[in-house]
UniProtKB/TrEMBL annotation:
Pfam families: Rttp106-like_middle (PF08512). Interacts with histones H3 and H4. It comes from Dichotomopilus funicola. This is Chaperone protein. Residues 69-88 have a biased composition (Polar residues). It comes from the Eukaryota. Residues 359-371 have a biased composition (Basic and acidic residues).
Length: 457
């Protein structure tokens, strides 16, 4: 994740009347621990300032929240986390929290495709339909349970747009149909423009408008502040980095912008692969997946054709907790353009030290072949083959094997070719010529016999 950075936006708002304190904090934040401490203090002060403008909501709502928290904390050992997550995910619990910030008219594409108003509370992020007060079903996310957050450009759009992608805990890895997570990933789309007038409301509206040059700056600030205030310091917003990976394919819609994704298929569904600093993300159609680097055991390149190839990612499922049952061990993405192989293999797979399982299997097969062939000629052939393939990548070796197989098939077709089975006229002509040659040979033999007889006489 890297060293933490000072949240200058929150610090600037909290200490806007005391620039001397702000300067002192910047000078003193010389270690990760101090930086985290200053950020926590700023988030706490900001939260207190935001809620000081009004009460914490009706007394009935406050009592309801207190009851929910006391029931959760009184559970026996081993049940607290699961029960609190289930209770906290309920829309009624989210509605009981005062809305600190509301951003209206936001496009949501998962788990439902519709425009919603997004509401930020102390404990929850949820969506609700315009003109309503109740959270939409299935779109209520406790801040503490968001495990991964991403900020990615939307491919194949003429206008620049970005997706925010959130994976609740236990929803990122591929699972069997019987073991799916209770909460699906959330995907919302924002344009590269400033928020519309009147689209920001809530107790923190004034602070939000101060950082709302664009939708992205507004959401980055609101999301980071909310997660830190809820105690979720482990989750940070991860963006694609063209320096780490970018496709060589030119984007027809935005030709001057490097694509940080590659197109592919998972089964029959098309989508996009993003090779990110923390792992590989597949989107944006259901089911969305995120494969963290620390879960990837190895990769293999398969089904290599002249223009495309497949990539198989092997996952570590032995260390997955009980809250994520039924994890698939391997996942395959197909029909990836061969032009992107070098970028995937060299600038991502090798840079992160991921094992190339396809190369390892081919080398193992070559060693076994050399050990089994004890004759000198076979040994020489194996040595020559090993030298010829030394230094080639797995994809190049697979291409060579496919070409050799195609050549072998052509050779077999040539061996099966029978000239006598072609046109009848050609066969008849050849037969007539052979008959004439035979008659001429018989006449010559008769002449020779006569001459010999005359000599004898």
């Amino acid at each position: 994740m890297g060293a933490p950075q000072l949240d200058t936006q929150i610090l600037g708002i909290v200490f806007q009347s005391r620039p001397d304190i702000l300067t002192g904090i910047k000078n003193a934040a010389d270690t990760p621990a101090r930086t985290t401490l200053f950020n926590d203090i700023a988030s706490y002060v900001y939260e207190r300032l935001s809620t000081a403008e009004g009460a914490d909501g009706p007394a009935s709502k406050r009592r309801r929240v207190d009851i929910t928290q006391s029931v959760t904390q009184s559970k026996p050992n081993g049940q607290t986390h699961a029960d609190s997550q289930t209770a906290g995910s309920h829309p009624e619990d989210a509605a009981a929290d005062p809305v600190l910030l509301e951003i209206k008219d936001i496009s949501v594409s998962a788990p439902q495709r519709k425009k919603y108003d997004l509401c930020f509370t102390k404990r929850f992020l949820y969506a609700r339909a315009p003109g309503t007060s109740a959270p939409a079903q299935g779109i209520t996310y406790p801040w503490k349970d968001i495990e991964h957050a991403f900020y990615l450009p939307v491919p194949d759009k003429a206008q620049v747009q970005h997706n925010y992608v959130f994976f609740p805990r236990g929803s990122s890895l591929p699972t069997s149909k019987q073991a799916g997570p209770s909460l699906e990933p959330l995907v919302l789309t924002v344009p590269a423009t400033a928020p519309k007038p009147g689209s920001i409301a809530g107790q923190s509206a004034a602070a939000a408008e101060a950082v709302s040059d664009t939708y992205s700056s507004l959401f980055h600030w609101a999301l980071t502040t909310s997660m830190r205030s809820a105690g979720n310091h482990a989750c940070q917003i991860v963006a694609a980095d063209p320096k780490l990976f970018h496709s060589v394919a030119r984007q027809p819609h935005r030709p001057n912008e490097k694509a940080v994704h590659v197109k592919g298929f998972r089964g029959s569904k098309d989508g996009f692969l993003f090779f990110l600093p923390t792992g590989i993300l597949w989107g944006f159609k259901k089911p969305l997946l995120f494969l963290p680097l620390d879960r990837i055991v190895a990769v293999s390149y398969t089904n290599v054709l002249r223009t495309t190839f497949n990539i198989v990612i092997e996952l570590d499922t032995d260390t997955v907790g009980e809250d994520m049952p039924g994890i698939d061990k391997e996942i395959e993405f197909g029909m990836i353009d061969q032009e992107d192989y070098q970028g995937i293999d060299e600038t991502y797979v090798r840079r992160h030290g991921l094992a190339d399982r396809s190369m390892a299997e081919q080398r193992k097969a070559k060693r076994e072949l050399a050990e089994n062939n004890k004759q000198p000629a076979s040994g020489d052939a194996s040595t020559a083959e090993a030298e010829a393939t030394d230094g080639l990548t797995a994809l190049e070796l697979a291409e060579r094997e496919a070409e050799q197989q195609l050549q072998d098939e052509e050779d077999e077709m040539e061996e099966d070719y029978d000239p006598g089975s072609e046109g009848e006229s050609e066969g008849s002509g050849s037969s007539d010529e052979d008959d004439e040659d035979d008659e001429a040979a018989e006449e010559d033999e008769g002449d020779d016999e006569d001459e010999t007889g005359n000599l004898g006489d």
